[in-house]
Design brief:
- The chain is an alpha+beta fold.
- Helices cover about 15% and strands about 30% of the residues.
- The strands form five sheets. A six-stranded mixed β-barrel has the order 2-3-9-4-8-7.
- One of its GO terms (molecular function) is aspartic-type endopeptidase activity.
- Belongs to the peptidase A1 family.
- This is Peptidase A1 domain-containing protein.
- It comes from Trapa natans (Water chestnut).
Length: about 425
C-alpha cells in the first residue's frame, strides 16, 4: 500500500514525539506526575531564565522569580480570554477593577527593578518546554497577567516577563498542583551557574547514580517557613536563630530576624548591623587561615577581598575559606555555605566574599541570593509550609546541571 507524504509525516511525528507525550501525559490523557522546566542562567544579568509556550506555540522566555505572586508577560495575544472582575479567579488573585468593572486587574511587579504596573488577568493554554528540541503539548489553562512592555526594564534581553513561584494562589506552583497527579503542592528547584531544573507538582524524579549513593532528595534538612506577616507577600522566608563563621557564633540580636531566599538578588545581602559583625568575623577567620586581604576596594561590588594566590583550592567546594552556618529552626537545622557559594573570583588576582551590605532598612536580616543557592537542591512544600535543602551537591561531585533536561540522567516520571 502506498503512503502519501502527509501520512508519512504523521507517522514520523508519533515515532519522534510519542515517548515524550507518553512520559509527560497531556491533560486529556490523564494528570502528569510532575512538570519539568529547564532553567538557564544569563551570564550578563545573572538572572535565571525558563521558557514556556503560550497557546502551545508562542515561545516565551521568563525570568524566574522565586517569590513572585503570578506569571506576568508583556506578550498579549489579541484572542486571550480576560478574567472578569468579581469572578472567583479575580478574588483569589486579589484583583482590582479595570475597564469599568468588566476586567480583573492585578499588580505585577518587576522584582529586579522594583517597578510595578496594573495588568489584565487572563486565562490561556500553556505548554512547557522540556528540551531545546521539543515541548510537551499544551496541558493546562493558566492564569496570566499581561503587563505593559515598560515593566521589562532591567530584565535579560529577550525575556518577556517573570515566572512567579511564590506562596500565592495565582503563582505557578499552586496552579499546577491542581493539574498534577494527586494535587501535590510541592516543587523542587536546582540552580547552577549554567543550567538547572524546576520540578513542580510531584516527587523529585531523578535517581542519582554513584558517587551520590542514592536519591539526593532523601538527604535534605527541613525548616518551617516563617509565619510572620510577610507570609502574605508570597515570600519564602525562614526563621534565623544564629550565624556562625568557622563554628564561632556571632554576637547578634537576631530576634524576629529572617533569612529570605531569592532568585532575583544575585548575591547575598545582609542588614547593615549583621553585615558589619559578619564581615569582621569572616576577616578574622580568614586571617587565621593565612588568606591575604587586599586593602582598599578592588571590586565595585564587594568590600572584603583577598589575594587569589593565598586561597587554597579543593576539587569539591572550590576555595578553601571559612565555613558559614545559618542556624535556622534549631541547632541541627543549619544551612552551611562553602567556598564555591561564598566566594566570587573577580579576576586571576582577586577573590572576594560574595556578600553585600543591604542597608539598615532591608526587611530581612539576610537575603540568600542566587549565587548562594546554586548546586543546592531545594524542596518547597506549600502544603506543609516547609522548605527542604540539601548540602552542596558539589560535596558529592554532583551539580544541579546534572539534572538539567539535556543531561544524561533520566527522570523517572
Amino acid at each position: 500500500m502506498a503512503f502519501s507524504a502527509s501520512m508519512i509525516s504523521v507517522f514520523s511525528f508519533f515515532i519522534v514525539f510519542w515517548p515524550l507525550i507518553h512520559q509527560f501525559r497531556a491533560h486529556n490523557l490523564g494528570s502528569p506526575k510532575a512538570f519539568l522546566f529547564p532553567v538557564t542562567k544569563d551570564a550578563s544579568t545573572l538572572q535565571y531564565l525558563t521558557q514556556i509556550r503560550l497557546g502551545g506555540s508562542i515561545p516565551l522566555t521568563l525570568v524566574l522569580d522565586l517569590n513572585g505572586r503570578h506569571l506576568w508577560t508583556s506578550l498579549a495575544p489579541s484572542t486571550r480570554p480576560l478574567v472578569p472582575f468579581r469572578s472567583f479567579h479575580c478574588i483569589s488573585a486579589d484583583g482590582k477593577n479595570m475597564r469599568g468593572g468588566t476586567v480583573c486587574g492585578v499588580v505585577s511587579e518587576n522584582s529586579v527593578s522594583g517597578a510595578t504596573a496594573v495588568s489584565e488577568l487572563s486565562e490561556g493554554a500553556v505548554a512547557f518546554v522540556s528540551s531545546q528540541r521539543s515541548s510537551i503539548p499544551a496541558i493546562h489553562q493558566l492564569l496570566l497577567a499581561h503587563a505593559p512592555s515598560s515593566l521589562l526594564s532591567r530584565l535579560t534581553i529577550g525575556a518577556r516577563g517573570m515566572l512567579g513561584m511564590g506562596r500565592a494562589p495565582t503563582a505557578l506552583p499552586e496552579q499546577l498542583s491542581a493539574a498534577a497527579s494527586g494535587g501535590d503542592r510541592r516543587f523542587f528547584l536546582c540552580l547552577s551557574e549554567s543550567d538547572g531544573v524546576i520540578v513542580a507538582g510531584g516527587d523529585w524524579p531523578y535517581s542519582s547514580s554513584p558517587p551520590l549513593r542514592g536519591d539526593v532528595s532523601k538527604l535534605m534538612v527541613y525548616a518551617p517557613l516563617s509565619t510572620s506577616e510577610r507570609e502574605t507577600t508570597g515570600e519564602y522566608s525562614l526563621n534565623l536563630k544564629a550565624i556562625e563563621v568557622n563554628r564561632e557564633r556571632l554576637t547578634l540580636n537576631l530576634n524576629s530576624s529572617s533569612l529570605l531566599l531569592s532568585t532575583v538578588v544575585p548575591f547575598m545581602t545582609m542588614q547593615s548591623a549583621i553585615y558589619t559583625a559578619f564581615t569582621g568575623a569572616f576577616a578574622k577567620a580568614a586571617a587565621a587561615m593565612n588568606m591575604t586581604r587586599i586593602q582598599g576596594r578592588p571590586s565595585d561590588h564587594f568590600e572584603l577581598c583577598f589575594s587569589s594566590d593565598s586561597i587554597s583550592k579543593t576539587p569539591k567546594v572550590g576555595s578553601l575559606v571559612p565555613e558559614i552556618d545559618f542556624v535556622l529552626q534549631s541547632e541541627i537545622v543549619r544551612w552551611r555555605i562553602h567556598g564555591r557559594n561564598s566566594m566570587v573570583r573577580v579576576n586571576d588576582e582577586v577573590t572576594c566574599l560574595g556578600v553585600r551590605d543591604g542597608g539598615s532598612e532591608q526587611r530581612s536580616g539576610v537575603v540568600m541570593g542566587g549565587h548562594q543557592l546554586e548546586n543546592v537542591l531545594m524542596e518547597f512544600d506549600l502544603g506543609a509550609s516547609m522548605v527542604g535543602f540539601s548540602r552542596s551537591l558539589l560535596l558529592s561531585q554532583r551539580s544541579c546541571s546534572d539534572f538539567s533536561l539535556s543531561s544524561s540522567l533520566t527522570a523517572s516520571l
